[in-house]
Amino acid sequence: MADRILVPYDGTPQARDALELTFDEFPDATVIALYVIEMPDGRWAQLVGPELQLPVSEKVEEYAADILETATELATEYDRSLETNVVTGEPDDRIVAQAAEESVDLIVIGSHGKEGISRVLLGSVAETVVRRSPVSVLVVR
């Protein structure tokens, strides 16, 4: 059974479904909701790494806090506690890095069908996380 679970949370219905499933199926686990502030491609992409936290505007930080507040409200509805964390970088890289840093047993991630044939069934971030994760990944559709 998973004791520590990381749920990437961006406020989408898929992320909400992943968080709800986590609360339903893992009632005794510590749950961590992670919001990744995505940095644009280009020069910054060369600097992004597991240890680097790039500066972001106060408005972006407030937006991230608002998104995670919805996750916290959902946890309250389920009578659960929730840890939250905000990081910057490429979402797939940061999710995998956080799984290792937080010593989680499982990642529960929502599927996003955004583009291309392979993305219809599994979103590009979810697909990369599944391939690179150091722990098991449960994809919620």
TrEMBL record:
Signal peptide: none annotated. Residues 1-141 form the UspA domain. Belongs to the universal stress protein A family. This is UspA domain-containing protein.
